[in-house]
Sequence to fold (93 residues):
Amino acid sequence: MNEIKYAVFTDKSIRLLGKNQYTSNVESGSTRTEIKQWVELFFGVKVIAMNSHRLPIKGRKMRPIREHTMHYRRMIITLQPGYSIPPLRKKRT
Fold:
């Protein structure tokens, strides 16, 4: 599973958890149907809707070459009532 990079925890995403909506960053090349199928299979939930948007590109200039640092988009996944995704935990070392 390389499409979903990580879950996003901002003020807005924490508010959306109360509405059964989960936010995560995904690869820009993955499609909405791929992400929906993966979430339904991996977590065993039913997805109602998915919204996505591309974040503003942050670039940096290294001498004559200008490169972009972000290559992902943000997905907001809405689940049916009664379903939830377990909290993601960081691995302790």
Observations:
- Residues 2-57 form one domain.
- Strands lie at 4-7, 21-27, 47-54, 59-62, 65-68, 72-79.
